[in-house]
Amino acid sequence: MSDIFKELADAVMTQNINGTVEKTKEALANGTPALDIIQKGLSEGMKVVGERFETGELFLPQIMMSAKAMSGAMEILEPELAKGDGSESAGYCISFVQAGDIHDIGNRLVSTMLGANGFTVKVLGVDIENEVVVDEVKKAGADKVLLVGSALMTTSMLGQKDLMVMINEEGIRAKVKCMFGGAPVSQSWIDEIGADGTAENAADAVVVAKKIM
Ligand code: HCB
After folding, report:
1. Domains in the chain, ordered, with CATH?
2. For ligand 1, which residues put their CB under 6 angstroms from it?
3. Which tens digit of pLDDT belongs to each residue from 82-126?
């Protein structure tokens, strides 16, 4: 890992809120692409934070501080990521985090990247019940709608399976493409629930979204 990416990851890992923002500004000023700052730096730090939480080395208040550090950096990076490529509309998306789940950092990132790559994105936010998603699909004027759902917990991930059932029962499956992601989501889960795709990160999400739409 290059020095700047290591420094960004370290700043998140050590809950250094101001340091994360400063390092992000420094990296941008040096010409580092915003997406690299996130994927090669900040997200790597966040991965370690998650692992240390799991092994009991870090506790919830520390994760909250790391999340605050990353969110602070994202406020600077989102306008950079949102600078679109001027492409024609790639389609309409509804983006949300499953009910019971408030992890929004990854979902925000994916939504911003889709917006920057020609998609019109309606962001519903966190802790969204499946009924709300289905209502939004019905309300959408578009012929085809891409659902961009995130779940960061094994518990909230189960809501994705229920959503697929509901979409089929409501008779709207033909107009909906379903891309689900988040740390516990795997391709085998996507196959099991009959969704259309998943993505490891925000850049990959754009590629998958364009492919399945
Ligand atoms: Co949270 N938490 N957390 N947490 N948290 C996780 C998710 C655990 C895995 C940590 C662990 O145990 N190792 C764990 C879940 C375990 C499980 O279910 N198996 C966990 C837990 C247990 C909890 C609480 C229950 C803790 C408690 O209260 N005791 C609680 C739950 C609250 C709730 O949701 N009801 C909780 C709370 C928190 C916060 C508030 C402190 C904070 C969230 C702040 C926020 O989001 N505003 C937090 C954080 C930060 C994490 C970790 C450390 C990082 C998540 C993150 O932001 N990653 C996470 C550990 C981990 O994920 N391994 C931990 C960085 C982003 C950029 O990555 O994976 O979200 P991402 O998104 C990627 C990728 O998945 C993909 O692209 C994104 C961008 O690259 N993607 C998609 C995402 N969505 C997509 C959709 C698509 O269609 C396509 C691709």
Report:
1. 3-81 (1.10.1240.10), 91-212 (3.40.50.280)
2. 43, 46-47, 49-50, 53-54, 60, 63-64, 67, 100-107, 109-110, 148-150, 152-155, 179-184, 198-199, 201-202, 205
3. 887 666 788 999 999 999 999 999 999 999 999 989 999 999 999
